[in-house]
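A protein record pairs a chain with a discrete description of its three-dimensional fold. The following entry can be read in just this way:
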Amino acid sequence: MNLKFGTDGIRGAVETKITPETCLRIGCAAGLVFKELGWDTVLIGKDTRVSGYMLESALQAGFLSVGVNVRLLGPLPTPGVAYLTKSLRNQCGVVISASHNDYKDNGIKIFDENGIKIDRKTEMMIENILSESAISLPTSQIGKAARFDESGDRYIEFCKSTVPDQVSFNDLRIVLDCAHGAAYKVTPTIFSELGAEMIVIGNEPDGFNINQDVGSTHPETTQKLVKKHRADFGISLDGDADRVTLVDSDGQILDGDDILFILGYANPSRTGPWTGIVGTHMSNIGLEAGLTELGYQFKRAEVGDKFVSIILSKEGWLLGGEPSGHIICRDLVSTGDGTIAALKTISSLLLLDKQPKDILKHFQKIPQINKSIKVTNKDIVSDTDVLTAVQDIETDLAVNRVLLRPSGTVNKVRIMIESENKNIAEKYTNDLAKLIESKQ
């Protein structure tokens, strides 16, 4: 079984890759590794995909068969599982989710005892034994399973506790899009109990509609409703609620770069753990310039919030994220959390008594064109003709940055080109995309 961890766990089509047999083997292999590391209990959460219950049973069976105890959390945002893993001191956590993908896909994300995605060394330990047949210990040694029905309530109370006492949401009208995903119950409750008037969509999952024309990949849905209802803010989460896109009262969509700048601007300190902020290679060069102007150091990680987390931990810094909306507020949480990022951003704006546009005028984004291309072989990024084309584009002085990379989760290649001349960026992006497509 040739399964590899990508930038965000193991992910793929349920019918061909993330099958019940696959999950059984992942449970066995991961369970054996966990026991070797001294972890004997795993929390399992999931999003709302129709395949979740099937895969949960298979994964659970794998863990139990090698003597690892299981506590089932039910549907819960990925960051909620990370929080409980650390809070309950239950050694490790697993989430069954394919994030922003549609219902046909699913995946596995694994957190260590600190609520942080497992490192590459641990991933390789699991990969190395995935091809082995599933085993079962003698009946007297198998693990035990139990449901933990308090998971949602625990996460709700934690999220509410992160809002400063002097902040009130009572006068706010907020549009919230839960993407028919894992946050469909907990996040509306959080904002309602904080006093906001809520207009909630994407909160009727049927197992098949997760991320379908809703969520952070379709922020225009929230944007329209913010304008229609004259709301103060719009919030769009993805299927497992680990990333977020915001909309301001003028209907402007705010991505992860905008959120990072607002949070950086709102923070009064530029010393100690607030010395620097971490982005990724996808972060707009304008964000880097703007944060530098504010007095921050800025470092770029590989794409993927776990790589942002690694640099944050190494530097001892507290804030980082991606343009896609994975925002890590390490003073509060250990991983990307869309609900926490929204709460903190809105709270910061209320404390400053400013609108997003009042803050975002202090930095200027460079036009950035992004394009994803379906491929049969992601190694196309190393093709000689493709590499030559990239080098030729980089010689154009009008181009600031070129990034060509294989997706870590799906069979796609991502192109990103930045240029102060948007037309040039669009031309080169299309040219490079046509070249790649011609080689399929």
About this structure: The mean pLDDT is 94. Residues 10-149 form a domain with the Alpha-D-Glucose-1,6-Bisphosphate; Chain A, domain 3 fold (CATH 3.40.120.10). The chain is about 35% helix and 20% strand. Residues 278 and 299 are 5 Å apart (CA to CA).
